[in-house]
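The data are quoted verbatim for reference:
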Amino acid sequence: MIKLIKRYSNFNPPVIIGSLSIVLGLSLCALLIPQISQTILQGIRDIIFEDFSWFYVLSISLFFIFNIFLALSSLGDIKLGSDDEEAEFSYTAWLAMLFAAGTGVGLMFFGTAEPLSHYHSAVGLVDGVPSAKEALFRSIFHWGINAWTVYGIMALALAYFGFRYKLPLSLRSCFYPLWKDKINGPRGHIIDIIALCVTLLGIVTTLGFGAAQLGAGFLYIDIISTNDFSAQTVIIIIIMSIAVLSAVTGIDKGVKLLSEINISVALVLMLFVLCAGPTLLLLNTMVENFGYYLSHILGQSFYTSIYTPETRPWFFSWTILFWAWWLSWAPFVGMFIARISKGRTIREFIFGVLIIPTVFTIVW
C-alpha cells in the first residue's frame, strides 16, 4: 500500500496513515460509545479552557504584535518568492479567495446570531441594560483582526519557507531554522500528523455547523420537512462533492471561480440589506461600531475575565472556543493562503490578510 501511495500520489505515508488512524479511532469511539466519548472530550476541553485560557489569549495577542512589527519594519519589503517574482493572482481574485477560505458560511450565520446571543448575555450589559453596541463589538472582535492574525502567522511562515527556501508547503517546514534537514524525519512526521488531525477535526466542526444551519434554513423555507440526521447527511455529501470538484479543477480554476461567486453573492446580499433595510441607521451604527472596535481592541485582546467571574462561562464558550477554532483551521487555511500569495511582499501580505477581511467583517 505504501508503494502504491508513493507511486501514484505525493502523500507522505507515515503522515497519512498515522493521522487517519487517529481520526478514525476518534470517529469510531464517537459512533460506538457516544456518551462516554462526549463526557471524556468535554472534560478534556473544560480542563484546557480553564487552565490554559490565558495562553490562548496571550498567544494570539503576540501573533498580532509580531505581524504588525513585520509589516512596519524593513522586513516587510521581502517577497514571498524570488525577488523578481510576480503575484500569481490579481488583487480581486486574491481577496475573494481570502474571504472564501477564511470565513465562508460562518459570517452568514454568526453575523446575525452572535450579536443577538451576546445582547441577551451578561457581557452585553452596560450598567445593567442590554447594549447593542457592546454585543456587536464582541462579535466583531471574534471575527476581526485577532482571528485573521492566526491565519496570517501560519500562512506567512509557510509561504516564507516554501517560496524562499523551496521547502514543501507543510507545517514541518516552519521548523527548518531549528532542526534543518531533521524535519524530513520522525519529528517532521509528528508535526504534520498533529497538523492534519487538528485540521480534520476543525473542518468537521465547521461542516457540522454549516450543515445544521443550511438544514434549518431549508426547513424554514419548506424545501425539507425535517432537519434531522438524514437531511444533514445529504447536505454534507453535497457540500463535500462541490468542494472536491472545486479542488480537483485547481486553484486557478474551480477554487478561484467558486470564491468569486461566493464574494459576489455576499456583496449583493449585503447591499440589498443596506438598501432595503434602515439605511441611515445601518450607516451610522457601522461608523460608530468601527470607532468603538478600534478604541477597545487592545484591552479586549488581553481580556481573560478573571476579575468578572460571572462572565467566565461566556468567555470559555465564545472567545476561547473561537480562538481554538481559528487555531484548528490555521494549518489548512494558512496553507491555502500561502499557496495563493506567492509573489507578494510580506507587508502587502500582512495588510491584505489582516486589514481588508477585518474591514469587510465590520461592514458586514
